Amino acid sequence: MTVPGTLLPPRGRWRRRPRVPGPSWRVKLRRDRSLLLMTVPALALVVAFNYLPMFGTVTAFQYYDYITGFLASPWAGLDNFSTLFADPTFWRAFENTLVLSLVQLVLYFPVPIALALLLNSVLSTKVRATIQAITYLPHFFGWVVVVTLFQEMLGGAGVLNHTLRQQGLSPWNIMANPDTFKYLVTAQAVWKEAGWGIIVFLAAIAAIDPSLYESAAVDGASRWGRMWHITLPGMRGVIVLLLVLRLGNALSIGFEQFLIQRYAVGSSSAEVLDTYAYYYGVVGNNYGLGAAAGLFKGVVSLVLILGANKLAHLFGEDGLYRSER
Amino acid sequence: MGSDSAALDRRSFLRATLLGAGAAAVGTPLLASCSSSSTANGKANSTAGLKATLPDYVPLTAGPKPDLPIVTGAAGASVDPGYLSYPTDLVATVAKVPGSGGTYTAITPLWGPIPAAGNPYYQAVNKALGASLTMKPASGNDYAQTVPTLVAGGKLPEWLQIPTWWNGNLNVGELVTSKFADLTPYLAGAKIRAYPNLAAIPTGGWQAGAWNDRLYGIPSFTSGSNFAAILYYRKDLFEAKGIDPASVKDADSLLALGKELTSASSNVWAFDVVWLMIQQMFGVPPTGNAVTLTDGKAASAFDAPQLEAALEYAYKVAKSGYVHPDALANNTSQGKQRFYSGHVLVTADGPGAWNGPDAIEGRTANAPYVRGAFPVFAHDGGTPTIPLGNSAALMSYLNKSLSDAQIKECLALADYLAAPFGSKEYTLVNYGVEGTDWTRGATGPTYTTQGTKEANQQTYQFLVSGQNAVTNPGYDDVTKAKYAWTADAAKHAYQPAFWNLNVNTPARFASTSTATQVNDIIKEVTYGTKTVAEFKAAAANWKSSGGQALIDWYQKSVVDTAASGTGK
Amino acid sequence: MTADVRAAGAPAPARPDPARGTRRSRRREQRPAWEEPPTVVGETAKGISLTVVVLLVLFPLYTVLVTSLSTQGAVNRAGGLVVVPDGLTLQAYRYMFSGGTVTRSIVVGLGVTLVGTVISLAVSVLCAYGLSRKGSFGHRTLLLTLLVTMFFNGGIIPTFVVVASLFHGYGQYWALILPSAVSVFNILIMRAFYLGTAADLIDAARLDGAGDWRILWSVVLPTSRAVTAVMGLFYGVGYWNNWFNVLLFMPADNEKWPVQYVLYQYVSQGASIPGVGTNMTGAAVAATQVSKLSLQMAMLVVTLIPVLVVYPFVQRHFVKGMLTGAIKG
Question: Does the beta carbon of A319 lie under 8 angstroms from any beta carbon of chain C?
């Protein structure tokens, strides 16, 4: 169905184009010089403030001492990495990170989409805007406040358990239970971020040509049919893009959120890569080790996002980018 | 979802609010400081070396006499003087204007709202100082991140304060000896007499700022009774229930008390997390730098039998159900509120929690609120002991780049700022200008609105201040109660291993001596999320992966040469 | 969410007229003619789920508000957050705004946010469009270059050294803006929109011989208002909330602090400092007669207000059909 006005070209469209030898690089350079010029400011900033400081990754190979500095700190070679990989706590943290990312992917990712669809069907703009504005407010709460609020409501001495005790029932251990911790943190993430996540999807839905709905309705599609055949495909490009980006960020999941709750459930459940790097790197007076963990995380994340991108191609989506000739 | 527009974000960063100020250091922060040095061989202070460099102690004769005088206890502990009223005649302890027009910038940590720059209070103090000392307080919670960036970027100010509980994390020994001025030529022995107020600071304060047998640090709030923890209880509620605190004489009776006090259905729990107190009860040697003295020889602090016994007990307490769930969830920021509301009846906190403002806050919740403290007791009911903390936890240092004349000027300024309680200088620094910042009320100086904003915060006081004085205007009962408790506790004080001793450990031991993994597991055991067996495994692991080498180094370089307490 | 979702375009105007913009569509909140009438079951289910969602958020918000308005006594009696009001006062807000520090920091914060958002948007739109032609010269390399920065950063100290020592940014306002001006995440999203929605328009314009600058100005920007608005919101919020750069580059220049950092100080107020027996700590707290928790909550409320104010302006751009007027079937 070649439908103009949707977010990305539907699958198959590009595949049908015959492969002809493209223009030479000189021609391309000439043709695209304005485009290249446009990318210069962003690139300049990125080079200055992201790439230049990357010399700091050298600390992963040093026994870094901030007082003697980068140039004079003794060289450690791969020592930091061997310490890292020999540490069972590190692998535990890695495992926790992956499991948590998976759980959040399944349980959190669909929620903003569903909410966006739900809100979209509300007739009154005022009601819609009000609900939107309310649901995205928790995004601005710091994690300290969010966890405090959860503790206030669901904690051992919280409102829920207080009521249970008064009714003579035994209290529920929600906040301090290591087994259900992953669901707890997902619930916290949903509460905090789902409203904010709606925004991008609403913008995507807004981009869909309303005449499509009209034609579909005229053709006999029901509400659900229209949602399935028009709205969701219209959002598909953005959904896949965000999914790919999210997979790339999977290893960076949480930090403050887990730091705050670390002692409530124990580090076996609450340790993730970022908290590990913090505790054993910064607090543990071993910057080199922390940097090694960060480097490892970066490399794996890059592999993950490129892999996810390839996966998206398999499903016919462009994902993050698709190389053209 | 959402953007991450900051290239750096909080994950690569220390957020200490939730950890509590200063708790970024591992282990008990008070007891013994240790640091790393890039020099291949480290060094500790030695008896002979210190003897040559420590300044003389010349107590002041001028100034108001304390209502509750200094009392010496055991092992060099002493009770801070208490004042029940503020003198009306303000004595001047500094004869002439100390400064000579120099310009200096000072950075100190502050746990509270930062006063506006260049405000009238600062101006007034600078005028009295005769120099331009620009105070730039920085957020206390993030201070441990601020300092390394200042160092790495070459932006160290002329005068920098670094709390000693970060000595290990920030390699303060190496930092100080390489970037800050050696003050020995100006202050050693009799030379300090040129600065009478500085000479009136007890020697322990100077010792706590000495590295490699040389004087570097200028101390604030020096005290002879810096105990790590006091076990507090709601005196008013105990009296209402008819409970006598003297009935708690050992670990078992404490637990029994917990059972008696806890009533979850009425939202009352007996305890907050009281690990600090449990350590004291069992006489656990400090684990701050991982090495302690056992029978006079260097040994792993984690092998101490007292530690294991204490952890067993702490685990039992955590699992008993007598500890408030929010406390078990490490919600330390509302610990005081839990105490004020009566949801927690017994808590362990530092001596700083027992003061007039605490009484004010507590009484806003319940008018009869009174904070009481259990007398010191041992876990088995035997002779009670309480370890002494280092004499000063706040140290400031002068930049190495300052010239001889500038250092002398700064020391003169420090002399002014270290004026004793009740003197003219002290009043200006702590309360501001009479009329604009404070007015004399019934109980002494009372801040005006302007004074609350400008003069109320600890700015100059964190650079240098004199002997700690206990005063709570309007709440003399608190002053008296605290004085009495401290006087009693001081009788049972002892100096733990490496007390007041700064050890410059070599860089190769930097992370071994911090022993994050073991200390973290210790903390988790006290919250009930790890078992004692896991702790023991971690301790053994630590020893075999570098710990033993550290212990050997200590034996050779510290124990055999140093001047310190003999531990227990 | 198992609500009965109407995928139809509400509130599309009865007479679609994108040229007229939003006002018409807001007034005419009618169902389009071809849409089915709502069912009772559907409406109820929708209503219930929306109410649940809103309550889940509103109740904690209410707690925050009440705590910010509670007296010190009330907070201390509750032992933490206040659910049932027990003594109300405006003292927390009064304390925050007296003395002018907070007011001044709001101005600074607004300034940094506005300037930063404009710079970030300009840079991002340019870069996103510059990368929106598949197969353009260096396309993949440039994309990867940007992508890598999402996963690797040098760390706090190297960034500080670069900004402060190399570029002399210590204590400068631009250090609060430029280092975090580029969000690769945002650029990628914008690029996706340009590649998708406007692809046909752009191709058509190119065939007509228009240069890329002209296409950007007269074709892409007008039709991607929704995306630009969203990105502007993201960037704006990012700048408004960011206090991390303040900590790094001006930790002690308190007259230059934006509001988030100033408010953050109140959170740490009155912390009890380990190992210090001084009784001066806490004097400030008692003097204010405001609980630290109330201040924290008041700070949160003050933070929320600008966001609530700005959002309607952004939301205006989420009207359907804005992107389609020019595309003829």
Answer: no
